[in-house]
Design brief:
Number of strands: 12
Structural class: alpha+beta
Helix content: 55-70%
Low-confidence stretches: 1-11, 479-514
Number of helices: 15
Strand order of the largest sheet: 9-8-7-6-12-11-10
Shape: rod-shaped
Distance between the termini: 46 Å
Radius of gyration: 48 Å
Protein name: Merlin-like
InterPro entries: Band_41_domain (IPR019749), ERM (IPR011174), ERM_C_dom (IPR011259), ERM_FERM_C (IPR041789), ERM_helical (IPR046810), Ez/rad/moesin-like (IPR000798), FERM/acyl-CoA-bd_prot_sf (IPR014352), FERM_2 (IPR035963)
GO cellular component, one term: plasma membrane
GO molecular function: actin binding
Largest sheet: 7 strands, antiparallel
Membrane topology: Peripheral membrane protein
């Protein structure tokens, strides 16, 4: 087996000498990158190539990690890539990861790509339970992760079930509660909807700001033993060195800030740390392997350098990056305001269009009703005209009969009978004829009045018909729809002026500005305290909502430890301050006695 392996390695070496290059695959949190490297390349050459490919300038946080035997190691910048003790089978695989973590993500992470890489790595560590996260914080972090992926919540787009394929919570949290996937999605969506108005970058930053307060965030753990042989855990992070009980990775027993450490060294498996306080003993412990000691030393030196660097004035490169970041942030804010204004105008235009469409439908209904009223008016006018004509004919007929009666009366008078009886009869007939004539005259007058009334009704009907026609013409002459431009340039001339110049971003820290700067810092502190208070209230509310569904028997030891710390009011920061109040000498002595 050994001879076969040696022959394979010899064959790979021969091929590399012939080709003068070797292939490398670099796995990032976003994608896999493939490179062809020269044989003489050092770790720095490959690392800088990866950073250039990613557009990354904040390179001091990152490194190239590779697997070796039962542990991991980081590529050394000043050593040839092929000289490292690692598998040489091509392609050689490296993982581009954050090696060191910032103390405060909001202050230190400048580039968007840096922030995004940290966000992806921390999210993966939380989901894979490499970093312990309490259930209520897991829900809130999941809502920010969804916002970073999908943007603002839209109920018309993000309907129930849209998170069914997403990995959002650690399996430990899911198993701890009697809750269905739909119940978890509902609670995450409620938090997600509250983040409306934030950009995706801001959502990632809020995620990191919450995650950096988790006890295991940014801590590298190593198994060690003190002089008594007691098994302990050494934690290395951005603040210093911490000693843990193996059963409790949340709360350290002892902590040593980097500013209290003077020198770090190792000899074989023994590691020695000299405190700044010369009266204190050298802090010594043993690790399981020499390779582990090398890794611990790398992490200690790197974290110590960054710790001291944060407390000095920023280099010109960092100042330039921060200036560019501020400019880019200002540009994005202006672009965001412009887009919001365009969106507002678009929504107003759509509302105006809907109003016009409703008004058009209303006018069409009114026109239809007016048309029907006009038809009814025309029919009524025709009937009235017909009735008036009949009444007029009847009046003429009655007038003719009255004239005939009058002629008959005159004839009777001329041919009156001489006798009294005939005279009496004639008088009676004359009286009847007169009465008939009078009655016929009255009837004729009534019929004439009726004809006049019908003519008046006809005139009114025709006037109503004329008004209905004019109204119909008025409705049909109106424009039913006026198009509203939705162009991106359709901003009002009196809108806000977003002209931007470098003068707005120039900073001159003179002595006269110190008072103003102090006031701004104080204001930022107040705002931070208010945000922290709001965040804590939000986490407590989430915890209360899901507490009744918790299965106590499924709690892990870390869950129990976290609950105990919460009841005591112990946080990551408060515990660190409490431990560092002790003298260095007493802390070293306590470590040796563990």
């Amino acid at each position: 087996m050994a001879s076969v392996l040696a022959s394979k390695m010899g064959l790979n070496s021969l091929r590399r000498k012939q080709a003068k290059t070797f292939s490398v695959t670099v796995v990032t949190m976003d994608a896999d990158l493939e490179f062809s490297c020269e044989l003489k390349w050092k770790g720095k050459d490959l690392f800088e190539l990866v950073c250039r490919t990613l557009g990354l300038r904040e390179t001091w946080f990152f490194g190239l990690r590779y697997d070796v035997k039962d542990t991991v190691a980081w590529l050394k910048m000043d050593k040839k890539v092929l000289d490292h003790d690692m598998p040489k089978e091509e392609p050689i695989v490296f993982h581009f990861l954050a090696k060191f973590y910032p103390e405060n993500v909001e202050d230190e992470l400048v580039q968007d790509i840096t922030q995004h890489l940290f966000f992806l790595q921390v999210k993966t560590s939380i989901l894979e339970e490499e970093i312990y996260c309490p259930p209520e914080a897991s829900v809130l972090l999941a809502s920010y992760a969804i916002h970073a992926k999908y943007g603002d919540y839209d109920p018309n787009v993000h309907k129930p079930g849209f998170l069914s394929q997403e990995e959002l919570l650690p399996k430990r949290v899911i198993n701890l509660y009697q809750m269905t996937a739909e119940m978890w999605e509902e609670r995450i969506t409620v938090c997600y909807a509250e983040h409306r108005g934030r950009t995706r970058d801001e959502a990632e930053m809020e995620y990191l700001k919450i995650a950096q307060d988790l006890e295991m965030y940014g801590v590298n753990y190593f198994s060690i033993r003190n002089k008594k042989g007691t098994s302990l855990l050494l934690g290395v992070d951005a603040l210093g060195l911490h000693i843990y009980d193996p059963s409790n990775k949340l709360t350290p027993k002892i902590s040593f800030p980097w500013n209290e450490i003077r020198n770090i060294s190792y000899s074989d498996k023994e590691f020695a740390i000299k405190p700044l306080d010369k009266r204190a003993d050298v802090f010594k412990f043993n690790s399981s392997k020499l390779r582990v000691n090398k890794l611990i030393l790398q992490l200690c030196i790197g974290n110590h350098d960054l710790f001291m660097r944060r407390r000095r004035v920023d280099s010109l490169e960092v100042q330039q990056m921060k200036m560019q970041a501020r400019e880019e942030k200002a540009r994005k804010q202006m672009e965001r305001r412009r887009l919001e204004r365009e969106k507002q105008l678009r929504e107003e235009a759509e509302r105006a269009r809907d109003d016009l469409e409703r008004r058009l439908i209303q006018l069409q209904d009114e026109a239809h009703m007016a048309n029907e009223a006009l038809l009814r008016s025309e029919e009524t006018a025709d009937l009235l005209a017909e009735k008036a004509q009949i009444a007029e004919e009847e009046a003429k007929l009655l007038a003719q009969k009255a004239a005939e009666a009058e002629q008959e009366m005159r004839r009777i008078k001329v041919t009156a009978i001489r006798t009294e009886e005939e005279k009496r009869l004639m008088e009676q007939k004359m009286l009847e004829a007169e009465m008939l004539a009078l009655k016929m005259a009255e009837e004729s007058e009534r019929r004439a009045n009726e004809a006049d009334q019908l003519k008046q009704d006809l005139q009114e009907a025709r006037e109503s018909e004329r008004k209905a026609k004019s109204k119909l013409l008025e409705i049909t002459s109106k424009s039913p729809y006026s198009p509203v431009p939705l162009s991106a340039n359709a901003l009002p001339p009196d809108g806000p002026n977003f002209n931007f110049s470098m003068e707005n971003l120039s900073f001159d820290f003179k002595d006269t500005d110190m008072k103003r700067l102090s006031m701004e810092i104080e204001k930022e502190k107040v705002e931070y305290m208010e945000k922290s208070k709001h965040l804590q209230e939000q986490l407590n509310e989430l915890k209360t909502e899901i507490e009744s569904l918790k299965l106590k028997e499924r709690e892990t030891p870390l869950d129990i430890l976290h609950n105990e710390n919460t009841e005591k009011g112990t946080s990551k920061q408060s515990n660190f301050k409490k431990l560092t109040l002790q003298s260095t000498k007493s802390r070293v002595a306590f470590f040796q006695e563990l």
